[in-house]
Every structure is written in C-alpha cells, then in structure tokens.
Specification:
- By secondary structure, the protein is mainly α.
- It is built from 6 helices and no strands.
- It has a domain of 101 residues: Glycerol uptake facilitator protein.
- Helix 2 packs antiparallel against helix 3 and helix 2 packs parallel to helix 5.
- The longest helix has 36 residues.
- It is a multi-pass membrane protein.
Length: 148
C-alpha cells in the first residue's frame, strides 16, 4: 500500500463498518456517533482550557501560569484526538471543520452537523464551568463597547 494512502486511512471512521443493521440504519448510527464524538471532544477541550485559565485567575499566586495552561490544553487536545479521532476525524473546532471543508478534505453536507455538535459541546462546557466556579460575567464582557 502506498504510504500516503495508508496515512489517509489512519483516521478512517470505524463506524463505516457494517454492524448488522440496514444501510440507512448504519448511516444514522454513524452520524450519531460522529455527532456525539465531536460534542464530547469539544466539551473536554473547552472545559480543560478555560477551566485552567479560570483556576489560574482564582488563585492570586498564578500557580498554573501560561505554560501550564498551554500544556493542559495540548494534553487534552491530544487525548481527545487519539481517543475520538477514529470516530469523527477529531476536528473539535468549527475553524478546523470549515478549513477542511473549504479545501475539499471534508464533505459539505456534514459540516453543519459537526459545527452544531462542537457548539453544543462548548456551551455545555461553559455551563459546567459556570456551575462549578464563581464566574462573574462582568470579568468577561466588560471590554465590549456600550450600545447607545
């Protein structure tokens, strides 16, 4: 097998295999798996990234620091890509999905589904952080210009 073709098949979806259902049921299951994988991946990446930023802000001594935040985000992104990349391709970010779609590496018809899943995962992560931590919205939105 040509080396490039082998590399392209590394993240081939496991859900493409027949699991004993009809073709339409198989495709519905595969789409659901991809949707859930993208939502879970986006959730954990956003939760870890902004959770570490918020924890760094809460402690006055800045115990985590910028390199720690970067390492946290990178480690979680790596774990999510390795664990869920075979199911969905491991985009977890609308910018990645749009870029792959523009350069014809991803089908246009699946892009909205992936983006919706990523947005749902991100909103759920922020909601979880807001419940767990004392989040003051003024800390995040005070720099926007006033309307009127």
């Amino acid at each position: 097998m040509e080396e490039g073709a082998h590399a392209a098949n590394i993240f081939r979806s496991q859900s493409d295999t027949n699991i004993g259902l009809s073709s339409s049921a198989n495709s519905a299951v595969a789409l659901a798996q991809k949707f859930i994988a993208e939502a879970i991946g986006a959730y954990f990446i956003i939760f870890a990234w902004f959770g570490s930023v918020e924890m760094n802000r809460l402690f006055d001594d800045e115990s985590i620091t910028s390199p720690g935040i970067s390492m946290t985000w990178g480690a979680v992104a790596m774990v999510m890509i390795y664990s869920l990349g075979q199911v969905s391709g491991g985009h977890f970010n609308p910018a990645v999905t749009i870029t792959f779609t523009i350069f014809h590496r991803f089908p246009w018809k699946l892009a909205p589904l992936y983006i919706i899943a990523q947005l749902i995962g991100s909103v759920l992560a922020f909601g979880t952080l807001a419940l767990l931590l004392d989040v003051n919205l003024k800390d995040y939105f005070e720099y926007f210009p006033k309307l009127g």
